[in-house]
Design brief:
With 178 residues, the chain is of the alpha+beta class. The protein contains three helices and eleven strands; from the N terminus they run αβββαββββββαββ. The radius of gyration is 19 Å and the shape is elongated.
Length: 178
């Protein structure tokens, strides 16, 4: 019996220690990103700021039932605390109220500047049909932002589900990325 205890207790203690540490880090606002939406790394959710800027990273929950269902069914995001039981998405702020969105050569442009890798795809990486884009060219209205993941061409972002309410954004500060 002593041998079994000696064999099981150290790994069990390490597992408990890691679990408690991860829960404490998550409750302190730390988020580990291992998706292509943002650079891989550790981020810290900061208090909402009154002055959001282009280039900032932020997390938010999807609000459109069609896209919540799609994200869950296709496993674009894991389980989490958002409506529908999915995780918040992490993206980069590319457009704010007053900015003009247009399409140039099949890519999204903000104020005339093309954002690379933002073409709307007809199918996802598994060949499944993507819904029609809800993003319309024009000026971003008050209270909304354009959220993109320009780090890969297959991003699930505003190019599909449209603009995101500013009030739903939670700024993310990179702590360590690679």
């Amino acid at each position: 019996m002593g041998r079994i205890r000696d064999f099981l207790v150290p790994p069990l203690a390490v597992g408990i220690f890691l679990s408690v540490g991860l829960m404490a880090a998550a409750s302190a606002g730390f988020r580990l990103n291992m998706t292509a939406s943002l650079p891989f790394g550790l981020y810290r959710e900061t208090a909402p700021v009154s002055q959001l800027e282009r280039g900032m990273f932020a997390s938010f929950c999807l609000e459109d039932a069609e896209f919540i269902r799609l994200a869950k069914e296709r496993r674009y995001v894991g389980g989490g605390t958002c409506q529908g039981g999915i995780k918040p998405l992490g993206k980069e702020i590319f457009g704010l109220p007053g900015d003009e969105i247009s399409l140039q050569d099949g890519l999204i442009a903000v104020n005339g500047r093309i954002v690379p890798l933002t073409g709307v795809k007809s199918t996802d990486s598994h060949g499944r049909t993507m819904p029609a884009s809800k993003l319309a060219p024009g000026v971003i209205p008050e209270g909304y932002a354009l959220m993109l993941s320009p780090h890969h061409a297959g991003g699930f972002d505003s190019r599909y589900f449209g603009l995101v309410r500013l009030s739903s954004l939670h700024p993310l500060r990179p702590v360590f990325t690679w």
